[in-house]
Amino acid sequence: MDTTSIFPQGDKLSNDWFTGNAFLTAFVAKDKNNEFSAGNVSFEAVARTHWHTHPKGQVLIVLEGEGFYQEEGAPAQSIKRGDVVNIPENVKHWHGAIAKSEMAHIAITNFKGELQVTWLEPVSDQDYAAVNSK
């Protein structure tokens, strides 16, 4: 089986929104035909998004590695290659790699007007460590 990444690493994402190193290879930007953006997000081990919401939801398609997806008030769920996560609108959540593995997913994110994401506070190191210890 070929274990090389399908997509290049892409551009480093801002630590204003991510903890650790995460990268984006953009595929599709919002335009007159598409009310969404799509791209590959790759996370180094331990990297993760901050808490955030999407006004019209998001879909994640995990391509490689292992990670977590967690909605506020719910236990974190393990995600791995082949998993699809359908995130409802305005649900506070985060996602990223586990502590011992990289993870990459395609993110398809809908827009509501010009807004596609509202970034919130970082996932604390304590909360992240607790998720990884299970």
Automatic annotation (TrEMBL):
Q: Where is the Cupin type-2 domain?
A: 47-103
Tell me which domain of life the UniProt entry assigns to the organism this sequence originates from. Bacteria
Q: Which InterPro entries match?
A: Cupin_2, HNL-like_cupin, RmlC-like_jellyroll, RmlC_Cupin_sf
Q: Which residues form the signal peptide?
A: none
Read off the CDD domains from this record: cupin_HNL-like
This one is known as Cupin domain protein
